[in-house]
Structure formats: C-alpha cells, structure tokens
Amino acid sequence: MELKQKIREIKDFPQKGVCFKDITTLLKDSQAFKYSIKSLAELVAEKKPDVIVGPEARGFIIGAPLAYELGIGFIPARKPGKLPYKTIEAQYKLEYGSDIIQMHVDAITPGQKVVIADDLLATGGTIFSTVELVERLKGEIVAIAFLIELTYLNGRENLSKYDVHSIVKY
After folding, report:
1. 8 is catalytic
2. Is 95 a catalytic residue?
3. Tell me, what CATH number does 57's domain have?
C-alpha cells in the first residue's frame, strides 16, 4: 500500500515554510491505518518487547494499537499534570521554548524491553526526552518506531545508538 497517498500535506502550517504531514487522512482510512500498525508491528516484533511507550498525543494514536497488535502493554508519556501518580519528568526543546513530558515512577520495571512509538520523527527532540525517561527507569529500549520520518531533518542522527524504524519517509 502506498501510504504517502493517504497522508495529506498542508503547506505553511503551523508556520510559513513548513509542509505539515497530516495523518488524520490516513487514520480515517481503516485499511491504511490497519496496514500501518501491522507494518510497524512486523518491524519490531522480533525484538520481543514487553511494552510500548508513546508520547502524548499522537504517540498514543500509534503506540496503543501497536501494543494491542503485539499483545503487550502500553505506557503513556504525558504532559505535566495529566498523570495521577508520582512521576519523573524530562524537558525538551520546542522551536520557540521548551516543554516537559512525564511518566509514572513505576511505569517500567528495570530490564523491561521497551519500544517507543510515535507518529513522526523530525529532529528527535520529543522522542529523545521519552528515551531519557525510559532509561532513567532502567528500561531497555529495543527499538524506536515511527509512522513517518522526515529524513531531511536528520533526527535519526540524534538517535544513532538505537534501532530506529519508520515506514514512510520524506
């Protein structure tokens, strides 16, 4: 299946010069969505992960069905104030400032095999903060999986010590 045909491109969003990759058009196509999740599952299944971690919010859209497909648990990484129990946090840079992502202190058991899943790899900033949280909880990151990779932004270079997968590349 040619997934690029299912992804809408919106020029100059969220700012001039950016060509936003809108996955809502892929998500509403049941066959494309199913194919995407199955494709990601095939890429990471051999790593035998125990859990999937997905950062808010689109990491939930990709990570939760991926965990379901693999028959394993899902762990959300959320913005401050969204998780009800004790948390750890990591800060990451945005184009105009920074933000924080958190996980429960008991989300990962030391030594658990973890796949981090998100919708898009750009520069790697958001995902690197998720990596930091997993490693602080002593999880073993066996793969990082993305629906889309913007290769021209070289985010993969920031994650070079990890097994990184993507199924659509621009």
Report:
1. no
2. yes
3. 3.40.50.2020
